[in-house]
Amino acid sequence: SAAVWNSAALHLCTDRPLLVVEGVFDGLPHWPDAIAVLGKPTERQLPLLRSAARPLVVALDGDAWREGEALAWRLQLDGVRARALRLPPRTDPGDVNNDELMAQARRVWEEAR
Prior knowledge:
By secondary structure, the protein is an alpha/beta fold. It is built from four helices and four strands. Strands 2-1-3-4 form a four-stranded parallel β-sheet, with helices on both faces. Strand 3, helix 3 and strand 4 form a beta-alpha-beta unit. The termini are far apart.
């Protein structure tokens, strides 16, 4: 599917990172700074992700961190400001306090500089 929950957040012109998570329940605690790809990211969603006006931090569930890293690399190759955040095993983004997760997302960008 090409559907993405909260896709309007992709087009907000800001340097505040936008979390890319798997499910809506992972994104809700981090709204408005999260989008959900409703499962694993798909090829059909890539054009929408490529249209991001703000930096993306791919924060898939802890058991899917390699997939998140691969997606971030692919988006980078397409010119998108994207990085991956590795969560601990068996940890979902929705399990992490919003302030803590957003601080981790900002650190990912600071370390990339």
